[in-house]
Amino acid sequence: MAKAKAKAALPDDLPEAPSAVPYTVVARRYRPQQLTDLIGQEHVASALKNAIESGRLAHAYLFTGARGVGKTSTARIMAKCLNCEKGPTPTPCDKCDICIGIANGNDLDVQEIDGASNNKVEEARDLRNNVGFRPTRARFKIYIIDEVHMLSTGAFNALLKTMEEPPAHIKFILATTEVQKIPITILSRCQRYNFNTVGPGKILETLIHIAKKEGINADVEALRIVAKRANGSMRDSQTLLEQLLGACEGTLTTQQVHTLFGSASDEQVQQIAMAILQADTKSALELLAKAMDQGLQVTELLDQFIEFWRGMMIAAVSSETELALADGAIAAAKLTHLDATLAGLDVLSATKGKLRGSTQGQLLLEVAVVRLARLGDLLSVAELSQQLASGGGPAPVTSAAATTPVKKKLELEPGTNGSAAVEATNVGSFWPKVLLQCGAFLPEYLKTAKNPPAIIGPNALAIRFPAEYHSNYELVKSERNQDVLRRALKFVTNADWKIDIGVDQAIFNGSSSPSTTSVALTSDKLTRNGLLKLPMFLSASAKLGALLMRWDEGFDPHAKTEKTVELAVVDLVDDPDNPLPILTDEEIL
């Protein structure tokens, strides 16, 4: 009675249970089913295809590589190739019951084992005991062990003999992301195949194909961001794409991608980077604070800075503009030199390491921005050593100088049209502006040269140092400082200049001809400039970047020295079987 009343109390218009087919995620629906479908692993597909066609099938395979690059998918494809009704064949039919069962993961003769949860020695012993049973309907019984590096030492030892000499109907396919954790005894029993990370170009092509198959409108730039963020993992890119498709409506745009990922737009990254390269620390910190107020993630923004500085490095060392560089990286690379770019990458990489476990992410990023903005004022070790050796050093910073921002970017005077041809009479007018563009210490070296420099041709300057400032000449003529000087001239005059840097020999040796380059030797000593011309020093300077730090005025490398030999008298016991050798005077000396 109670049951009948309860049944009658239910309303008659209850909605029926939904009968829709369960949703399958994108990464599973577009999983490779043939060896030819593998993306970025063509070398593995070719090797397995040749092995199947030639009949040289190993009893154990090991697939290694990063996550999401196709290791487990290749293991399933390999199982289909071996057990297909038309096999063994490199092109399984995907229509027979065996192929369908393997693709769905429910075939009785193909067992997929998770090494992370089945890592005990007892489970390995059970597997060893079961290998003696023949397959139920297929050609081979195949064991696919995923994350095999998670097995315990005892489990590995229990599999050793079985993996070396298994029954003819048994095949092992192991997959791992950390091959260094697998014992060498297991590695020596397997054929190893290394899976590469998938390039962003191939990932982008796949995402575009999936978007078309799904009937989705997506901007190519938005998909390119997803491809870069995947870091070489095809599965990660497909998972991110599905997340975006579920969260966004209409056309998938770059703004939607940045909003969901918590990353900055390319324009924001470029604005902050340009402020840093112009040493405008105030603007850089303000732009960074504005980005943080928008809810951007510190880790995402730091990764974008690293990618931008990487683009600057590539642009500085390569003339190939077709490279996939960050927007504005090519133009930004022209505002600094390669050494500063490499130092910036070191600062950003160190900051990323500090972010792990830190609760002050924004503070660490702000400190990195300030340090990046000051890289242009840093000295190399050679320059600092030279300054200390000469008794000089960085000028002390007063309180007024410390609080006054340095403006490195100057406006051209009204009426200056930036003409490429500048007359000799105009050098004195723009040379002080050039010095202001050369940083903190390079102008001090240039001021010891003949000022202003002389025009020796169209857009060509001759900078000459007196002999007593030869050390400054060595510093200024370095490739790094010459690049800084050329960029300063380009900025002020809007023209490309050639620079000829040298030492005024007339001052050095008292000759009226400035072209004299002979080495001045006296009977008992070598002058400073003559010492710099010695082959020994030239070789050390060219190969090691050596600089002359100190010299003794009485030093003469050509002086002859008498060869003296001091003989120590010791007691020797004459052995008749091993007589002592008799040396001549010439051999002794």
Q: How confident overall, as mean pLDDT? A: 77
CATH homologous group name of the largest domain = P-loop containing nucleotide triphosphate hydrolases
Radius of gyration: 37 Å
How far apart are the first and last residues' alpha carbons, in Å?
126 Å
What does this structure look like?
The chain is 46% helix and 7% strand. The longest helix is centred in the middle third of the chain and has 20 residues. Helix 6 runs parallel beside helix 7 and helix 10 crosses helix 11. The N terminus and C terminus are likely disordered. With 589 residues, the chain is of the alpha/beta class. Strand 6 and strand 7 form a beta hairpin. It folds into 4 domains: 169 residues, P-loop containing nucleotide triphosphate hydrolases (Rossmann fold, 3-Layer(aba) Sandwich); 62 residues, Helicase, Ruva Protein, domain 3 (Orthogonal Bundle); 112 residues, Zinc Finger, Delta Prime, domain 3, CATH 1.20.272; 95 residues, GMP Synthetase, Chain A, domain 3 (2-Layer Sandwich), CATH 3.30.300. It is built from 28 helices and 8 strands.
